Amino acid sequence: MGWYIGRRLLQMIPVFIGATLLIYAMVFLIPGDPIQALAGDKPLSPAVADQLRERYHLDRPFVVQYLLYLKGIFTLDFGTSFSGQPVRDVLARAFPVTIRLAFMAIVIEAAFGIFFGVIAGLRKGKAFDATLLVLSLFIIAVPVFVIGFLAQFFLGVRWGIAPVTVGADAGFSRLLVPAIVLGLVSFAYVLRLTRTSVAENKDADHVRTATAKGLSRRRVVVVHILRNSLIPVVTFLGADLGALMAGAIVTEGIFNINGVGGTIYQAVIRGEAPTVVSFVTVLVVVFLVANLLVDLLYAALDPRIRYA
């Protein structure tokens, strides 16, 4: 197992470098002068503008800027934002909020998606199964921002059972509705994946053998059906963790959450390459670690993978 983890970590290095280089290049190629954008409508003297460009390495070639940033990453120095704040402090404020939001969303989508997916798979072709399939398709078809605004209007404005916006107080209770909105589409995919896998595995030979041995229905479902059915679901959840954190920009914008999404959006508008790439770098690391954990979970769910 140790050599496998080491090999996976080595594979992460080119992915990490390629992702940060691509994002840095995209931000670097955004038209406009970030120094002038920082000043707004106020004109800057040439001396002050040159001083700011030198401070943020904007007077250097692109390759030099990227290498200097890469050096800062390995020394945990993410540089300074155009507002004068250390990017590390901005990360420390924004990421815990988004991590909390994404964690709540993935728990909600996994728990309810797997639960209803198992029931639908065991009752394939019946009314309950058909109802869930139609409902999940409807959820997938409706854009997230529409669901978010509807939840905000009805739960917050019309009925008053949830806060309209979250703001600075991003506790678990205030993040519950945004987490449901963020994880709702993924919940539909988890439900359909689980339902399909359970429907395929419930008629497998090993399941019929376990039933013939007199094992309880609960043990057959949990051990022999669900365990084998979770492999594609775990794969999706591992990839979805990074997608949830990156896709939280819409949900955070609707509910006024001071997390990663809003910070990245503002940094892109201002052309702050260090801030944008720093946030994306952390998202890349989260995504890579999540996929490594998924690979390790395969061995726990399927002994054949562990023995191989």
From TrEMBL:
Q: Which UniProt keywords apply?
A: Cell membrane, Membrane, Transmembrane, Transmembrane helix, Transport
Q: Where in the cell is it found?
A: Cell membrane
Query: What PROSITE patterns does this protein's entry cite?
Result: ABC_TM1
Bilayer topology reads: Multi-pass membrane protein
InterPro entries for this protein: BPD_transp_1_N (IPR045621), MetI-like (IPR000515), MetI-like_sf (IPR035906)
Judging by the UniProt lineage, the source's domain of life is Bacteria
The ABC transmembrane type-1 domain, residue ranges: 95-298
Where is the chain membrane-spanning? 12-30, 97-120, 132-155, 175-193, 225-250, 276-301
Q: Which family does it belong to?
A: Belongs to the binding-protein-dependent transport system permease family.
The identity of this protein, by name, is ABC transporter permease
Traced from the root, the source organism's taxonomic lineage reads:
Bacteria, Bacillati, Actinomycetota, Actinomycetes, Mycobacteriales
